[in-house]
């Protein structure tokens, strides 16, 4: 597991083949420093279209911003059990639509 300090660092990391090759899931917030969540996910999709992405936001934020294959929007509040189940499903390839 690796944590990026912001979207720009995350995008730089996926440009490294040794890092990107082992990447199974990206978890992002709707509000990310400097680059908003929708812009980050759009850029990520252009570089790695099959990579599953989980975006965490609030119920008032829009899921429509994340209408990409293999991108799931999880509104707060959620339980730790929900998060564990969802990430497990995404890593296994069973969750492929916006939640």
Q: Can you put this structure into words, describing what you see?
A:
This protein is α/β, with parallel strands linked by helices. The chain is 36% helix and 16% strand. The chain has 4 helices and 3 strands; from the N terminus they run ααβαββα. The protein has helices spanning 7-14, 17-20, 37-47, 80-92; strands at 26-29, 53-58, 71-76. It has a 3-stranded parallel β-sheet with strand order 1-2-3, covered by helices on one side. α1 runs parallel beside α3 (37-47). The chain starts with 6 loop residues before the first helix and ends in a 7-residue tail after the last helix.
Q: Calculate Rg over CA atoms.
A: 13 Å
Q: What class, by secondary structure content?
A: alpha/beta
* Strand arrangement, major sheet: 1-2-3
Number of E-type strands: 3
Write the H/E string, N to C: HHEHEEH
How big a fraction of the residues is strand?
A: 15-25%
Describe the global form.
globular
Mean pLDDT: 87
Query: How many H/I helices?
Result: 4
Helix content: 25-40%
Ends distance: 23 Å
Which blocks of ≥5 consecutive residues have pLDDT under 50?
A: none
Largest sheet: 3 strands, parallel
């Amino acid at each position: 597991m690796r944590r990026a300090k912001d979207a720009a660092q995350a995008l730089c990391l996926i440009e490294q083949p040794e890092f990107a090759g082992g990447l199974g899931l990206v978890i992002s917030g709707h509000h990310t420093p400097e680059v908003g969540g929708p812009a980050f996910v759009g850029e990520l999709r252009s570089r790695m279209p099959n990579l599953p992405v989980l975006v965490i936001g609030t119920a008032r934020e829009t899921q429509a911003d994340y209408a990409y294959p293999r991108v799931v929007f999880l509104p707060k509040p959620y339980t730790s059990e929900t998060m564990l189940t969802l990430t497990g499903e995404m890593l296994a390839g069973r969750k492929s639509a916006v939640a």
